[in-house]
Amino acid sequence: MSHVITSVKVEIAAPAAFVWDVLTDFANYPQWNPYTVAVATTLEIGTPIDLTLPNPDGSDGTFVNREWVRVVDPPHHLRYDTADEMPGIFAVRDQWLTELGPDRCAYHTTDAISGRYADQVMELTGAWVQAGFDSVADALKARAEALHHAHLS
User: Domains in the chain and their CATH numbers?
Assistant: First the structure.
């Protein structure tokens, strides 16, 4: 069974290249990203990307989810997946920026989850992932627009 979680699509009043720089500025994630509070990666194809996430049950603390970088296509597409990190589960995360003009773009993210335990993963964490993805989209919009406005001032 395969499932796809898709975030809300947000329009951002900033150029796609500017938003890409915010999206891939992992050192500053703790300042704005409510779902992925830290990232460690070189962003080179085939290398690990360690994502620090809050606990799904809302309790204090975080956990690290290791995935593998597959596509880095600035300023349009970032993809990573779980490879064989979790037996019975395979997840592919795509983050998309679509240019809407010289000073506007849209962002959304998806996670395609497949494998023997995909149904159970969706049942246990699907709503949490959906809420997290939506919060990232909204937070990226707010962060990029604020930085872009400050940059123009």
Answer: 2-27+70-152 (3.30.530.20)
Give the residue from 81, 107, 84 showing the smallest Cα distance to 95: 107
> What is the number of alpha carbons within 13 Å of residue 125 lying toward its C-beta?
17
60-92 burial, b at 16+ Cβ within 10 Å, e below that, comes to eeeeebebbbbebeebbebbbbbeeeeeebbbb
| pLDDT tens-digit readout, 78-123 | 999 999 999 999 999 999 999 999 999 999 999 999 999 999 999 9
Q: In a 10 Å sphere around its CB, with 0-12 CB exposed, 13-18 middle and 19+ buried, how is residue 99 labelled?
A: middle
Nearest C-alpha neighbor of 80 from the set 90, 67, 89: 67
H/E stretch holding 84 reads none
The pTM for the full model equals 0.95
- pLDDT tens-place string over residues 49-79: 999 999 998 899 999 999 999 999 999 999 9
Instruction: Tell me the residue type at 90.
Output: F
Instruction: Tell me whether strands 104-114 and 90-101 are parallel, antiparallel or unpaired.
Output: antiparallel
Q: Of 33, 28, 2, whose CA–CA distance to 95 is shortest?
A: 33
